[in-house]
Amino acid sequence: MAMIDATQVLGNLPQGLRAELIAEYAKITRNYVRGNWEAAELNGGRFCEIVYTVLRGHIDGSYPVAASKPQNFPKSCEALAQADKISFPQSIRLGIPRVLVGLYEIRNNRGVGHVGGDVDANHMDAIYVLHSAQWVMSELIRIFHKIDVAAATRVVDALTDRTVPVIWTIGEARRILDTSLSLADRTLLLLYGEAGGTSAQKLATDLKQERFANYKRVLKKLDEDILVEYNDTTSDVEISPKGEKYVEENLLQAQRYLD
User: What is the reported pTM?
Assistant: First the structure.
């Protein structure tokens, strides 16, 4: 199963803006996982400025080389509503801009970004920033994609991957930090955090299973229990709704990894 690459999908965007957008979004999710609430919220502010630049460039028909901060962010977002209703969908004119204003409010008035905010950075604010950014990214993919509907849906799912603190991503590898869990449970956790599934070989590599033939027995047992869908021919593995429920009730909630 090929890895979904969001930078390839946002084909209408200039490389510079596209790279900024993906990088800033990654910072939000990474800081959230690490519990760096203030850093996540600061990244949310920069994320807003990049997305605004993308929307403004899309409406104007010309993108700048890099994102910049408008002089008055709320009013600049409101001005996007004046774009032609026939040429530009509601999400471009109203939906995304309104979410951006709310996100920017967190950065400017909740103890983040400067001295004098009336509320300190906290977990709930960081959750709001994370999920708002996920929604905005999903909308941008939906609007700007140059792929078929099925592929676009997978990209949206990948961009809204569940953020699981027990999973540590380092480079292209993903590790389960709780080594006390069974191999089957660690497999399910990795699949839970991987929208669209992955390959059996990638799972074996991430879980450091050198004897692939032995590891396949674990996958086949999970498949028999309908916790995953495993295709031995293609090596594709995807978690089932039953498997998702098991992870949430027995692994995440029990270990307090799920709010």
Answer: 0.63
